[in-house]
Amino acid sequence: MFCLTSCLKEKTVPIASTTDGCFEQSYTYNIRPIIETSCKTQAGIGCHDAWIDEYTPIASYISSGVWYTEIFVDKTMPVMPNIWGIDSLSDAELTVMQCWIDQGYPEFD
After folding, report:
1. What's the pLDDT tens digit per position in 2-23?
2. How far apart are the first and last CA of the chain?
3. In a domain, 57, yes or no
């Protein structure tokens, strides 16, 4: 396993290659860190902070199609620009998230 980092952002995207060209991902080890740095606002300020750290509500949003639409189609998550200093998702983060969804969005490795 190796990690991608950027000198411009405080983000680390863990990536483990598989033979199918995608990456083995899990919510706990790969997706939650992306959510914490790119979707979560300062404690108590954001409207979705009460559920954003939990796998079950996120899995529900994915199964309903809302998550995919907001991130990949409408590109409204995270909302840009925003007052919290949260950056948009990088191409590497989008790839990790797409692979995770394609793999059935597992919770753990």
Report:
1. 444 444 445 454 444 454 567 6
2. 13
3. yes
